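Lab notes, practical 5.
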Amino acid sequence: AREVGSVETLASALCAQAATLGEGTAASVKRSGLYLEAARLIRDSDDDARLRALLEQSLSAWPENVDTVLELRACLENQGDLAALGSLLEVELGLLLPGTRRGLTALRLAEIQKEFGGDEEGFEKNIRLAAADLVGTAHYVRVEGLAGDLSLLVENTVSDVTDALLSRASAQIDQGGRVNDVVSILEEALGLDPACGAAYEELERLYRQAQMPEELSAVLERHAAMVGPVAERGRLWLERGLIAHERLQSEQTAIHALE
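Output from the prediction step:
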């Protein structure tokens, strides 16, 4: 079929191959991928019903296929089937870690729930989830606009906001996110709470992971200045001194840190 070059023929061949697969996780994952590939082949056709059917088959085979979720989400948005889209967004939320993408997904689901009405509990849950994930971003104004009655959004204390920022930063570090993006989040947390030890610790973890000794040394110095216990402050200065000696070849900095 690939040699013939017919999109329809190839899509049908992929579906036929998917139907021959057996049971088990590996087969389910492969089956999901084949249906997704077939759907992508016909995406530019006018057969929206078939596109949706193929994507639903892909998701049925492997419900954790994030690529299929995104494709099906776009398909349902185009078709205007908000009831089905709402159900899909519930699935998507279960696959996402804290952060902007989860917040935007929760926000879209809250928009649908508000339009349909009748699920106040679900709406409030999702608008609060969106607020927690999107606080400090340009998207937060949409959350406030949708909430209408801002009492739905329990006033965020400094602790609430810093906790949300730390959660986003930690998730991005674990996912190998861009260093500058994570630094921006953590510096925002430190702007709210300059003594936030967890933010300093996440910055230190980030710089160790990214192998950035100069930046790590600088943040260790800042952290040490905010720490009360002598032992903890000594540990931070000791690590900074070792970095200066071993990686930065800065004898003066090392001596100062170890004094």
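Observations recorded by the TA: The two ends are 74 Å apart (CA to CA). Confidence is low (pLDDT under 50) at residues 253-259.
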